[in-house]
């Protein structure tokens, strides 16, 4: 397993959201990135957590964090464990009542929760080898993507999150 950080959340050339995970010891432009395509709500949730933005009501991942805390559980780490036919799989490792539990999750949900609990994020070596790409994004481009997405978050209406 390789510990990673969220290097960015961006839009690909088709307008799909993608989260970019990068090894902790990597140098931007000189490493591998793991792109995982995610939904727009998950992308927003991850960016809200990374930016430390306030929302008028808790998002789903805030609710999950609060529920775990209320029950005395803690998120130890999240792991992107495998890829099968282009679908990524993750696990949330939680300690509750003295026992360690592994909970199956989508990577986007696992990363959104980790971003709220300061839990470390890990990717299996095999996943990074199979699905990782060379980091050809410059730091300036990554910052521009984050800035563009931050502007999007500022313009989101809380009613957009109502079911």
Automatic annotation (TrEMBL):
Pfam families: BFN_dom. InterPro entries: BFN_sf, Bi_nuclease_dom. One of its GO terms (molecular function) is nuclease activity. Residues 1-135 form the BFN domain. PROSITE patterns: BFN. It comes from the Bacteria. This is Bifunctional nuclease family protein. It comes from Microbacterium protaetiae. The lineage of its organism: Bacteria, Bacillati, Actinomycetota, Actinomycetes, Micrococcales.
């Amino acid at each position: 397993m390789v510990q990673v950080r969220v290097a960015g959340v961006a839009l690909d050339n088709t307008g799909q959201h993608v989260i970019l995970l990068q090894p902790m010891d990597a140098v931007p432009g000189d490493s591998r990135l793991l792109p995982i395509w995610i939904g727009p709500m998950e992308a927003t949730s991850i960016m809200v957590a990374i930016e430390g933005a306030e929302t008028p009501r808790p998002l789903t991942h805030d609710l999950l964090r609060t529920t775990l805390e209320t029950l005395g559980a803690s998120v130890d780490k999240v792991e992107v464990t495998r890829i099968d036919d282009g679908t990524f799989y993750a696990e949330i490792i939680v300690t509750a009542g003295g026992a360690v539990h592994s909970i199956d999750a989508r990577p986007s949900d696992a990363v959104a929760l980790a971003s709220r609990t300061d839990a470390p994020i890990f990717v299996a070596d095999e996943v990074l080898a199979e699905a990782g790409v060379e980091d050809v994004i410059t730091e300036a481009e990554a910052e521009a993507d984050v800035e563009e997405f931050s502007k999007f978050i500022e313009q989101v209406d809380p009613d957009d999150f109502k079911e």
